[in-house]
Design goal:
This protein is an alpha/beta fold and 505 residues long. Helix content is 37%, strand content 15%. The longest helix has 17 residues.
Length: 505
């Protein structure tokens, strides 16, 4: 396949991709803002191209009701909760999300299942044929995200989904997914992120995120910073969009009954809650002891958003309490406080901004209060690394920093190390690497400090960093300690973990 986007016109009108790799190469031959971060005035950031592309596909997005989810934190979790709630009610549900962790197929889900490889190849072939004429190849020039969005919308139309959930890629107002006319919009918690593109203040970010609010279309809001709340409320008011807010129209209460039986302890501490709403158009309901399957107290907000969305979608025929409980209690999402083993605990989390790292640290403290945290961290260069590192240094006993080796926009480990050296409190010490299977006495004493060790180091290769993390876990367990490993900082780094994490035999 050609690697130059300008060579797309050379594709045959009878394109048939034989493998996921071939189809993926076609998609990745186009401009990809997930690997090269966009600038604020980039000419590709507009809705004209996706609008034209979907017109050529006969506007598949108009063939099903859409729930559009934007925000800074919690988009993916809210989408998964809502997907599971609708599945529990017996609907056929499409979900488009990004980025993926292990396979591009994760982006296109129907009924909780990734798009089958043959179907993905056929859909990509259809797009390649569409762009194969000289005229279209020269004029459209869609980006990677525009093509994957078109592929998803076409897939859901061909499969006749009852509902489709679209997760915003970046921002909202000018995001490719904003070509839809949803039946419901949801905006999760906002915080500073992608400031180089969305704006330096929370008001600017709220304006961009609020761009998914549509005329006279209901919108759900999570709890927001007051400045963001004012911006979003004004947008909703100006567009005549009914606004339902967490804490005003629907509510989270401390749990009045025990956790749902059968759930493991590390998934229920601090997460159980009661839910009510005060929305006049809906049947009154109070559900006690709801236990979200996704870990962390912050998941209460995401679950409450999804519950309210499911109720608003069925005002005259509400879902049964049993289905609502099942939907909240059985959802699964990779990379969101994902505990892959419990002895010692290993937690994977895609947190990649200050607010999400802060929540991650708090959840670790709630779930594993007696463990010694080892954080393994890498992130992207367009992220505000310093505030994330400050939170990690406040909560960690050990910090390993590295960089990923597959994405051009990775944050160089040398720069991360310079940041840590500059901001680490006086009780932190840098240790030499690599660690060896048989430690010298001095290093052993440092690692096994019976007070409260605070040690950091760096690795230029993620594979080595992961191997060394396993080695440290082994040493600490042999010394009678209770360590845990948390891998975080980026979707890309969680992918690297899956690629390299198997310990050496």
């Amino acid at each position: 396949m050609p690697n130059d986007p300008s060579q797309q016109s050379s594709l045959s009108k009878q394109t048939v991709f034989q493998s996921v790799q071939e189809a993926t190469e076609f998609l990745e031959a186009n401009l990809n803002f997930e690997t090269t971060s966009p600038t604020k005035n980039d000419p590709h950031i507009k809705l004209k191209t996706i609008t034209q592309l979907l017109q050529l596909l006969k506007n598949p997005q108009n063939n099903y009701p859409i729930i559009h989810i934007g925000g800074t934190k919690g988009k993916g979790s809210t989408a998964i909760f809502l997907e599971n709630l609708l599945l529990s009610a017996g609907y056929k549900v499409g979900l488009y999300s990004s980025p993926h962790i292990l396979s591009v197929l994760e982006r296109f889900r129907i009924d909780g299942q990734n798009c089958p490889p043959p179907r993905f190849c056929a859909l990509a072939s259809q797009l390649a044929d569409l762009l194969s004429t000289d005229r279209l190849g020269r004029t459209l020039k869609p980006t990677y995200f525009e093509l994957t969005t078109a592929l998803a919308l076409l897939y859901f139309s061909q499969e006749k989904c009852d509902y489709v959930i679209l997760e915003v890629g970046l921002g909202g107002r000018l995001d490719t997914t904003n070509i839809c006319n949803p039946v419901l919009s949801i905006i999760t918690s906002l915080s500073l992120d992608h400031t180089h593109f969305l704006g330096e203040t929370i008001e600017e970010i709220a304006y961009e995120k609020g761009g998914i609010i549509k005329e006279k279309t209901p919108v759900l809001l999570s709890k927001q910073p007051s400045a963001a709340q004012k911006v979003l409320s004004k947008i909703a008011h100006d567009k005549g969009a009914p606004l339902y807010q967490l804490g005003t129209d629907f509510h989270i209460h401390p749990a009045t009954k025990a956790n749902t039986p059968g759930k493991t302890d590390f998934k229920t501490k601090g997460s159980t809650f009661d839910y009510t709403h005060s929305i006049d158009s809906l049947t009154p309901i109070r559900m006690e002891g709801l236990a979200p399957s996704l870990c962390g107290k912050h998941q209460q907000e995401n679950a409450a958003l999804a519950l309210t969305a499911a109720l608003l979608l069925h005002p005259e025929n509400p879902l049964s309490e049993k289905r609502l409980r099942n939907g909240v209690g059985t959802a699964h999402l990779a990379g969101r406080f994902e505990v892959t083993q419990t002895s010692p605990p290993i937690v994977l989390d895609v947190a990649h901004n200050e607010a999400s790292i802060e929540r991650l640290c708090q959840t670790l403290k709630e779930e594993f209060p007696s463990h010694l945290p080892l954080f393994l961290f890498a992130t992207s260069q367009d992220k505000a690394a310093e505030p994330m590192l400050r939170h990690l240094l406040d909560h960690a006993n050990y910090l390993f920093i590295t960089e990923y080796d597959t994405v051009a926009r990775n944050y160089p480990v040398s720069d991360l190390l310079a940041l840590v050296r500059n901001i680490a409190p006086d009780n932190w010490r840098e240790i030499p690497t690599p660690l060896s299977a048989s430690l010298d006495l001095g290093t052993q004493n440092l690692l096994e400090d019976n007070t409260s060790p605070h040690l950091f180091t760096s690795f230029s290769k993620p594979k080595v960093a992961i191997e060394q993390a396993y080695l440290l876990l082994d040493h600490l367990q042999e010394a009678g300690k209770t360590p845990l490993l948390c891998v975080t900082g980026s979707f890309f780094f969680i992918e690297q973990w899956h690629r390299y994490h198997a310990p050496q035999e």
